[in-house]
Model the fold of this input.
Amino acid sequence: MCRCKHDFWSLPWSWESLDLWKDEVDVPSIVTAVPFILPELGEDGMKILLETIILDIKYQQKRLRMDQCREKKIFRLMCEIWFKKINSVENKQRSGRPRTFSEREERWIVRQVYINTRTSAVKLTLKCKSGFRKSLNPETVRNVLRKHKYHGRVPRRKPYISKANRKVSLAFAKMYVKQPTEFWENVIFVDESKYNIFGSDDKQKV
Done:
């Protein structure tokens, strides 16, 4: 059996240092079993075992340092190429005007229109000013809606007359359409004023 040139108690190792190395290198699983097998080994066997463990850990530490140096060289090379390209280490300014709304704010605007299709851009602008605390223009909100395929349209007017009332009205008109002029001279026509009780009947965009 070969003998180690170092004395057993002068070896540069400790159990605490081995535990610290576990986070950086792959420590052999035999290290955790050393405290249990040391009593069964002789003095020479313990020296050989500990020398092997220490050499293996040093080799792995050397590989780790080489990998770190390689990564640093690659990063340095990339920085040099970027510096030669723009001749500066500062962040390059982006072109164009910065966006007014973030993606989350745009989704909120689209959700409001999806909930109520009759919501106007002016009302949405007021909500955005109070919620996002930004100075906005209604046209900015319209641009966001157009971006998400929402366009303002005037709906077609639909007469609120049932089919039964349509037939009765048509029969009434046909009954008096051929009456002579003398008949209409005895008819009194009254002008009526129109009042809207619920909202306006003007054109509304949806």
Remarks:
- The first helix runs from residue 15 to 21.
- The two ends are 95 Å apart (CA to CA).
- DSSP finds eight helices and no strands in the chain.
- The mean pLDDT is 75.
